[in-house]
Amino acid sequence: MLRKAVIPAAGMGTRLLSVTKEQPKEMLPIFARGMKGDLCLKPIVQLIFEQLYSVGFRDFCFIVGRGKRAIEDHFTPDPSFISKLDSKGLESATEDLQAFYNMIENSTLVWINQPEPRGFGDAVLKAKGFAGNDRFLVHAGDSCFISKNAEHLRRLVRMSEENEAQTLFLSKEVQDPKRFGIVEGETMANELFKVKRLVEKPAQPASRLAIMPVYVFDPIIFKALESTKTGFAGELQLTDGIQKIVDWNLNVYTTQVDPKETWLDIGSPDLYWEAQSLSYKLSRGPTS
Fold first, then answer.
1. What does the pLDDT look like over 140-184, one tens digit per residue?
2. What topology is assigned to 4-284 in CATH?
3. Which of 8, 25, 272, 279 could pair covalently with 31 via S-S, beta carbons 3.0-4.6 A apart?
């Protein structure tokens, strides 16, 4: 059973300057529902953690970099702050924060430093000691999907257990594939797509099927990354590591997200505005 999750959160967030000069982009807030169904704001990395916790993950590894201490502080329970909220009669805020702290107390959190921004692949490679010989999930810390009961994660976990895959990840058809890692391959049964080739931010995309940064890996990904050269932007790209697994004729699959599952990405000002708008609408609408 999958219990280990790696959350890379070491990017500099340069496209969101100057707000990210002192604040990690993963701590930027989006709208959500509180315990009583009321509208609230949560850092996107907290929402990701809570989704993963809700589907059974209990061991978490955060990959952080310089200036990311705010994330670790946020994930450190503060009973005195709870008491202050109680004293002011802020019952709803107290319940929400206490529920978050309870999840933290029932989990194991590991913090690993990525001193230099050497890419998503390098961030995952640093989790080698945490993962050991176990299969594990990787979820980017600055984007997530909103679905009923976190069904997108439940489906990914279920499919990874049902199929002998060294890699399985989410994907989505996009309008501007040049901005993404792009997937080529063939459709199979049971909502699976067998991956034949992946290209990071191609100048001439061969498809519009984009990699979404939620993956389940066999530990062989570490061997693949260790034998992969730096690629796009002089960084160790996770896409190139996955391609190495494809080249070894091992099983690499993707499954598309349901059109009803909403993607929230805060990687740039326009995407963050869209994430704010979508999360507000979803949080104000029927319970999901």
1. 999 999 999 999 999 999 999 888 889 999 999 988 888 888 998
2. Spore Coat Polysaccharide Biosynthesis Protein SpsA; Chain A (3.90.550)
3. 279
